[in-house]
Amino acid sequence: MIGELPVASGVRVVGEINGEKPRREEQRNSALLGVIWQPWSSKNVWFDAGVRRRFAGGGPDWQFTLGVTFGFSAASLAQRLTSLGELQSANRVNGVR
Fold first, then answer.
1. How far apart are CA 6 and CA 36, in angstroms?
2. Residue range 30-85, pLDDT digits in tens
3. Measured between alpha carbons, how far is 18 from 41 in angstroms, rounded to an integer?
4. Measured at the alpha carbon of residue 14, what is the angle toward residues 39 and 28, in degrees to the nearest 5?
5. Fold of the CATH domain 2-93
6. What is the DSSP code (8-state) at residue 18?
7. What is the rounded CA–CA span in Å between residue 45 and residue 78?
């Protein structure tokens, strides 16, 4: 189970409770508590940090994680590539390199 709670502008607290029992392996249970921060609302960049505690199963008792996420729209990327291709075609027709 995963949850998010907005606590301030651009800041979300996140939590996760994880339990699994892979076939022929021991039970694995853990919980994670973290934060996601978007420092610039106009940019699609997020920073995150978290700490995970293992309760059962193999692996380390504690894990720490840091990350960065870049968001983009596939549609706008395709549109830019199309525009770039059209510009290059026009330049070839006009003899511009």
1. 9
2. 999 999 999 998 888 999 999 999 988 777 899 999 999 998 777 776 777 787 77
3. 31
4. 140
5. Pantoate--beta-alanine Ligase; Chain: A,domain 2 (3.30.1300)
6. E
7. 20
